[in-house]
Amino acid sequence: MSQINRRIPQGARRRLVLAAAAVAALTSCAGDSTSAADATVLQVDLGRFVIEPAALETYAGNIELHVTNVDPDLVHDLVVYGKGTRRLAPGESQTVEIPAAVAGQYRMWCDVPGHANAGQVGTLLVNPAPSPTVASP
After folding, report:
1. pTM, rounded to two decimals
2. Do 53 and 105 share a domain, yes or no?
3. Is 23 found in the same domain as 50?
4. SS3 content of the chain, % helix, strand, coil (to 5)
5. Range of the domain at 51
6. Residues 28 and 85 in one domain
7. Which of 95, 94, 69, 99 is nearest to 81 (CA)?
8. How far is it, in rounded angstroms, from Cα 93 to Cα 46?
């Protein structure tokens, strides 16, 4: 046993280990998430067999889609970029996070049977990120 371990009582040693584990867990979680501050946030409404707006356009990077079912009677969901919402009851909302989206054109649709065929489809156009501008001296 090391000199340090012999000088710290067992109960205090246990509390130190637990505290260190908690700090490590909080630090690792903080580094993994994308904050709303660096994401482009877009609102999407799901209506009666429509997605509004039907065409979304943004730049590559972190994207958040705030999806709300505005249909007073039917459940809807949204699928795009390999991600999607759960089935949303009338008035419910959910955020879809798309971290590090790459440039391209992506189909959006409601995956409830028959809804896409009835016209509940749209497009997400992700443009290449703009080049940073460098100020000249």
Report:
1. 0.69
2. yes
3. no
4. 25, 40, 40
5. 36-127
6. no
7. 99
8. 10
Would you put residue 91 in left (φ > 0), alpha (ψ -120 to 50) or beta?
left
* Domain shared by 119 and 59, yes or no: yes
Asked whether residue 137 is domain-assigned, the answer is: no
Q: Tens-digit pLDDT profile for the chain (137 aa)?
A: 444 445 555 554 454 444 444 434 333 333 333 445 689 999 999 999 999 999 999 999 999 999 999 999 999 999 999 999 999 999 999 999 999 999 999 999 999 999 999 999 999 999 998 877 776 66
* DSSP secondary structure letter of residue 39: S
How far is residue 73's CA from residue 89's CA, in Å, rounded to a whole number? Answer: 8
In degrees, rounded to 5, the angle at the alpha carbon of residue 117 between the alpha carbons of residues 111 and 121 is 65
Instruction: Look at the chain and report how many structural domains it folds into.
Output: 2
